[in-house]
Amino acid sequence: MDKITSFVQKSDTNAIAVAVFGAIGAAVIAFKALRFLKVLVDVFVRPGINLKKYGAGNGGWAVITGASDGIGKEFASQLAAKRLNVVLVSRTESKLKALAEEIEQKYSVETKVLAMDFTKGDERDYAALQLLISPIEVTILVNNVGTNHEIPTFFEDESDKTVDNIIEVNVNAIMRVTKLVVPQMAARKNGLIINLGSFAGLVPTPLLSVYSGSKAFLSSWSQAIGAELAPKGIRVQNVNTYFVVSAMSKIRRPSMTAPLPEAYVRAVLSKIGVSGGASTPYTSTPFYSHAIANWLIENVFSRSFWVGYNYDLHVDIRKRALRKREREAAAAKKD
């Protein structure tokens, strides 16, 4: 009889344990499902903050770095279309002047340009930028300028110049430009800072280790200054970006996961203040396929899995890039 009682008690205990763990599992699944539903609502339904809050149509100025091509050029055009004057900062003066003329004619806004090579970290360039923006009301800063490894490369094989350039452009330049505009934003208690982040900062990316580290820094720094600047009326938004058709990504054809800059920037500007797929503070993943990918990374499989996935992916990309170089070298010899 005692054995039967003991067996029944153990069975009851096991049943309770199964029920408890089942309830926990169901709660976790429900939470993840609700989080995914929120992602869909964010990217397809919920509107962002109207840019009129940040000077659109009211004499405000947007400073865009890396403005002459790709995503930066699109930010300049779309912000001008929303009736913001624009300061265009990039390396090639001829491209900047051509873009400035196009924007002025098309949107009837004011422009200013500054040719600046951010890899140099030249004090005179930053002084010139300070002089350029001092008399105007900068309400938006788009920290778009960035550089990457030429091809995926193992850290020990990467050139010192490439490492230095990535740190100078992706870390130092962004901090220095931000520090130039924050005082006047804080004085007016209003401003928007958009930092162009990357999934490489969300998941460490082998063979792009320095770039990945710089974007992880940007994510952490954006959260830190986001908390500092929020009481001063300044919104910081680190935009978590997956693939976009651009010279830096080396993607030439748009797809569901790699949109053209026009579509991507439109999503960013329409979702200011909306987190989209991101769960990190002061961060947004506004483009729908990127938002879903962000949710998958944070909710499916382990971080070790995704680091391993990134490793295999970039080893394969490196092999294909090296084969392409070999073909090009062989073709050059024939010529």
From TrEMBL:
Transmembrane segments: 15-34
Reaction it catalyzes: a very-long-chain (3R)-3-hydroxyacyl-CoA + NADP(+) = a very-long-chain 3-oxoacyl-CoA + NADPH + H(+)
Enzyme Commission no: 1.1.1.330
GO molecular function, one term: very-long-chain 3-oxoacyl-CoA reductase activity
Pfam families noted in UniProt: adh_short (PF00106)
Metabolic or biological pathway: Lipid metabolism; fatty acid biosynthesis
Coiled coil, from the record: none
Primary subcellular site in the record, as a coarse category: endoplasmic reticulum
Record keywords, A-Z: Endoplasmic reticulum, Fatty acid biosynthesis, Fatty acid metabolism, Lipid biosynthesis, Lipid metabolism, Membrane, NADP, Oxidoreductase, Transmembrane, Transmembrane helix
Matches recorded under SUPFAM superfamilies: NAD(P)-binding Rossmann-fold domains
PROSITE patterns per the UniProt record, alphabetical: ADH_SHORT
Assigned GO CC terms: endoplasmic reticulum membrane
Ligand binding (substrate): S198
Active-site residue list: Y211 (proton acceptor)
Topology in the lipid bilayer: Single-pass membrane protein
An example Gene Ontology biological process: fatty acid elongation
Localization per record: Endoplasmic reticulum membrane
Family assignment from sequence similarity: Belongs to the short-chain dehydrogenases/reductases (SDR) family.
PANTHER family: HYDROXYSTEROID DEHYDROGENASE-LIKE PROTEIN 1 (PTHR43086:SF2), VERY-LONG-CHAIN 3-OXOOACYL-COA REDUCTASE (PTHR43086)
UniProt xrefs under HAMAP family: 3_ketoreductase
UniProt function note: Component of the microsomal membrane bound fatty acid elongation system, which produces the 26-carbon very long-chain fatty acids (VLCFA) from palmitate. Catalyzes the reduction of the 3-ketoacyl-CoA intermediate that is formed in each cycle of fatty acid elongation. VLCFAs serve as precursors for ceramide and sphingolipids.
Protein name: Very-long-chain 3-oxoacyl-CoA reductase
